[in-house]
C-alpha cells in the first residue's frame, strides 16, 4: 500500500511561509531533502481541506487531553468536521467566516467556495465498500417537523439512537443525551470503519503481557506479536517511536509511543508539519514487536470548545438558532485481523443564548506504554480517528 501522501499538505503550508519539502526513501537511513522543488498542487477538491482539518483535530485533541488527563481519548475528526460543515450551509452569511475560521480554515488561503466544494467531494469519496475495507459515512438532520422533537423529545431521542445504532452496526450503543423540549433540530453525522491489516497478526502468537498505564499502575492485556516489515522511526527530538501499520485499502494507522515522561511534549508538538517530518524520516524495516489488543470508547461534550455562532441549521423558516449541545462518541477495537471503529456527532440546535464558555525494536520488544493513534484515509488525506490509548482495556 502506498504511503500517506503528505505532499498534499505542503502547498498550503508553503503559502503560510512554511517551506517544507518531502522525500520518501523507504530503505535508506539518510535523510535527503534533495532539491526543494515546488510539489504538485492538490489534485482533488478535498485535498484543500487536509491541513485545516488536521490542524483542527490536533487543537481539539489538546483541549480534550487537558480536560481528561490520564484517560483514554478517541474521536473522529472527519465526523466532527462534517457535522459542523452542515451548519455552515445554514449559517447567516455574516457568521460563515467565523464558523469556518473556528474549524481552522484560513479564508485567505482557501476561499469559502472551495471549502464547500471540498466537503462535498469528501462526502463522495470517503464511503468505501470493498472487503476487507468497509468505510461508511453519512449524515442526517432531525428537525421538529420531521420527528416531533419539540413535542416528543423522548421519542426523538429513541429515533436518533436507533438510526445511529443501525448505521454503526451497534458499536456505539445509546449515546445521545437527553433532548430538551426547546430543541429545534439535531444534526447527526456518523462513521463506521472496518479495516483488515495488510499484514494480519497470528492469533497463536498472542499472549498476556503487562501494559504500563503509568508509573504506578500496570494491567495485563493480550499482546499480539509479529515479525514483519513496517515503516518505523525513532524521533530523538520528540523522544517518541512511530510505527505505521497499513490496512488493506486506502487506510493506514500511525501509532506513536512517547518515551516515559514525554507524552506532554509530544502532544504539544502535534502539527501538520510534524506529520510531514515523520513521513520524511519513516523507513521500512524488518521488525519483531509486540503490540496490545485494544478496545476503548470515549464520549465528549464539545459545545464549549467550538466556535460560538448563530446558525440556521439548514432549516427553512428557523433562523437564529444556536448550538446548545454537541456530543461526540467514538469506539475502537484493534485485534489480530485488523481494526473496527465507529463514531457519531450530534449537534443540538435551540433558540436562545449559547452556553458559557527508544531504539529500533529487537526480538521480544514490547510496545507496552500509552500511545497515540491516528488513522488516515490516504486518498483524501482525511484523519478518520485520533486518540490516546492509556489503558487498552478501556477501564
Question: Keywords for this structure?
Answer:
alpha+beta; 9 helices; 395 residues; 9-stranded mixed β-sheet; Alpha-1-antitrypsin, domain 1; Antithrombin, Chain I, domain 2
Name of the level-1 CATH class of the largest domain = Alpha Beta
Q: Work out the radius of gyration.
A: 21 Å
Quote the CATH topology of the largest domain: Antithrombin, Chain I, domain 2
Order of helices and strands: HHEHHHEEHHEEEEEHHEEEEEEEE
What portion of residues belong to β-strands? Answer: 25-35%
The N- and C-terminal alpha carbons lie at a distance of 34 Å
Determine the CATH superfamily of the largest domain: Antithrombin, subunit I, domain 2
**Architecture of the largest domain in CATH?**
2-Layer Sandwich
Number of domains: 2
* Number of helical elements: 9
**Main beta-sheet strand count, sense and barrel state:** 9 strands, mixed
Query: Quick one: overall form?
Result: globular
The number of distinct β-strands equals 16
Average predicted confidence as pLDDT: 80
Helix content range of the residues, please? Answer: 10-25%
Task: Pick out the low-confidence regions.
Answer: 5-41, 145-150, 309-317, 355-364
Structural classification: alpha+beta
Helix/strand layout:
Elements: H1 10-15, H2 50-67, E1 73-75, H3 77-90, H4 93-102, H5 112-125, E2 128-130, E3 133-143, H6 144-147, H7 153-167, E4 185-196, E5 207-212, E6 218-235, E7 240-246, E8 251-258, H8 263-268, H9 272-281, E9 283-292, E10 294-301, E11 310-311, E12 321-334, E13 338-350, E14 365-366, E15 371-377, E16 382-389
Parallel strand pairs: 9-14
Antiparallel strand pairs: 1-16, 2-3, 3-4, 4-13, 5-6, 6-7, 6-9, 7-8, 8-15, 10-12, 11-12, 12-13, 15-16
Amino acid at each position: 500500500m502506498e504511503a500517506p501522501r503528505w505532499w498534499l499538505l505542503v502547498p498550503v503550508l508553503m503559502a503560510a511561509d512554511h517551506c517544507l519539502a518531502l522525500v520518501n526513501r523507504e530503505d535508506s537511513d539518510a535523510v535527503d531533502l534533495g532539491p526543494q522543488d515546488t510539489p504538485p498542487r492538490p489534485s482533488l477538491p478535498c485535498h484543500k481541506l487536509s491541513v485545516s482539518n488536521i490542524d483542527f483535530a490536533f487543537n481539539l485533541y489538546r483541549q480534550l487531553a487537558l480536560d481528561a488527563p490520564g484517560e483514554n481519548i478517541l474521536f473522529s475528526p472527519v465526523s466532527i468536521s462534517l457535522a459542523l460543515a452542515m451548519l455552515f450551509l445554514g449559517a447567516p452569511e455574516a457568521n460563515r467566516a467565523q464558523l469556518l475560521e473556528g474549524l481552522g480554515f484560513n479564508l485567505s488561503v482557501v476561499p469559502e467556495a472551495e471549502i464547500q466544494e471540498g466537503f462535498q467531494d469528501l462526502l463522495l469519496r470517503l464511503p468505501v465498500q470493498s472487503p476487507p475495507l468497509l468505510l461508511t459515512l453519512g449524515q442526517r438532520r432531525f428537525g421538529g417537523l420531521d420527528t416531533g422533537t419539540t413535542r416528543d423529545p423522548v421519542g426523538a431521542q429513541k429515533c436518533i439512537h436507533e438510526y445511529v445504532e443501525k448505521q454503526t452496526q451497534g458499536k456505539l450503543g445509546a449515546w445521545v443525551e437527553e433532548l430538551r423540549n426547546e430543541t429545534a433540530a439535531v444534526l447527526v453525522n456518523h462513521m463506521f470503519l472496518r479495516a483488515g491489516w495488510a499484514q494480519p497478526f497470528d492469533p497463536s502468537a498472542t499472549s498476556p503481557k503487562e501494559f504500563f498505564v503509568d508509573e504506578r499502575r500496570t494491567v495485563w492485556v493480550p499482546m499480539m506479536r509479529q515479525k514483519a516489515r513496517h515503516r518505523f522511526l525513532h524521533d530523538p527530538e520528540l523522544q517518541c517511536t512511530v510505527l505505521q501499520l497499513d490496512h488493506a485499502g486506502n487506510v493506514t494507522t500511525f501509532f506513536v509511543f512517547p518515551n516515559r515522561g514525554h507524552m506532554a511534549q509530544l502532544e504539544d508538538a502535534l502539527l501538520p508539519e510534524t506529520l510531514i517530518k515523520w513521513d520524511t524520516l519513516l523507513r521500512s524495516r524488518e521488525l519483531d514487536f509486540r503490540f496490545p489488543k485494544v478496545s476503548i470508547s470515549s464520549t465528549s461534550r464539545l459545545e464549549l470548545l467550538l466556535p460560538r455562532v448563530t446558525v440556521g441549521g439548514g432549516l427553512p423558516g428557523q433562523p437564529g438558532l444556536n448550538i446548545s449541545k454537541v456530543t461526540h462518541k467514538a469506539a475502537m477495537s484493534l485485534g489480530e485481523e485488523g481494526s473496527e471503529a465507529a463514531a457519531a456527532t450530534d449537534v443540538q440546535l435551540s433558540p436562545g443564548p449559547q452556553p458559557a464558555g527508544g531504539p529500533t525494536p529487537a526480538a521480544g520488544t514490547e510496545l507496552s506504554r500509552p500511545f497515540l493513534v491516528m488513522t488516515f484515509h490516504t486518498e483524501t488525506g482525511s484523519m478518520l480517528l485520533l486518540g490516546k490509548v492509556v489503558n487498552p482495556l478501556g477501564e
